[in-house]
Amino acid sequence: MKTDTIVILSQRELDKMRKAGRLAAQLLQHLESMVKPGVNTLQLNDEAERWTQAHGAKSAPLGYKGFPKSICTSVNEVVCHGIPNAKQILRDGDIINIDVTPIVDGYHGDTSKTFLVGSPSPKAKKLVEVTQECLRRGIAEVKPGARIGDIGAAIQEYAESQGFSVVRDFVGHGVSNIFHTAPDIPHYGTRGKGKRLRPGMVFTIEPMINEGTWEVEVLSDGWTALTRDRKLSAQFEHTLAVTEDGVEILTQAEGDFSP
User: Fold this and answer.
1) pLDDT of residue 253
2) Count of structural domains, the chain
3) Which of 9, 49, 173, 227 is exposed most, by the fewest CB atoms within 10 A?
4) Is 147 among the domain residues?
5) Residues near 42 by Cβ (< 8 Å), separated by ≥ 6?
6) Within a domain: residue 194?
7) For residue 50, what is the domain's CATH number?
């Protein structure tokens, strides 16, 4: 269920979000060691589900609006919501986004990262690097009084300056004890537009950046979104909280970047 009301989280709720975010970051780190040629995406899914249960958490995607698996695995031209499949075997040169959302004590930690499989092409590596920088630049805009449009503008300006495009069909979102809630966080936009950010707001920034056109199409399974031109797409995602003086990344792993 998605609500239109922007919820300001209490310190108690933020503490729960920190725990969920920390576990999400650890899950992504755990799966990273498996990302190599010859591994199929169902293996990644099954290990994620095993690990999540072993840590006393639940996988939010599993059964969400009928989604059949515990994580999303989006390879190459898949923009998002790729469904893990035993027949989908990672090959040298692929890129894969793994999107995880464990639920800890009722609260969601939502994060994703695009990994390189073996040795992708220089263009694929540049796309992944630019996408991660887009996330960094979006997060750097987050502070009390800023506008949602500032986030999207920073991402769009940088992506397009590097010759890439920004997906419009899927956006970041509020998250708490509800998986997807207000506000929407577009990864494109105009500075000074949109709702003002306030301390206690929690949402994801998750830019999807495409090698070619920004346009996508969804397969008949109702989930898998592909680039319309079948060129590459990459994505990075963090859950973050607006603080009194800036931003806190709730899904930041040890050694990860700071805005």
Assistant:
1) 86
2) 1
3) 49
4) yes
5) 69, 84, 85, 86, 88
6) yes
7) 3.90.230.10
Rounded to the nearest integer, the mean pLDDT of the chain is 96
DSSP collapsed to 3 states, the chain: CCCCCCCCCCHHHHHHHHHHHHHHHHHHHHHHCCCCCCCEHHHHHHHHHHHHHHCCCEECCCCHHHCCCCCEEEECCEEECCCCCCCCECCCCCEEEEEECEEECCEECCEEEEEECCCCCHHHHHHHHHHHHHHHHHHHCCCCCCEHHHHHHHHHHHHHHCCCEECCCCCEEECCCCCCEEEEECCCCCCCCCCECCCCCEEEECCEEECCCCCEEECCCCCCEEECCCCCEEECEEEEEECCCCEEECCCCCCCCCC
What's the pLDDT at 1?
Answer: 46
Write out residues in the chain with pLDDT < 50, as ranges: 1
The pLDDT, as a whole number, for residue 66 is 98
Classify the phi-psi angles of 161: left when phi > 0, otherwise alpha if psi is within -120 to 50, otherwise beta: alpha
The answer to whether residues 127 and 209 touch, using CB atoms and an 8 Å cutoff, is yes
Is 173 contained in some domain? yes
Residue 167 domain flag: yes
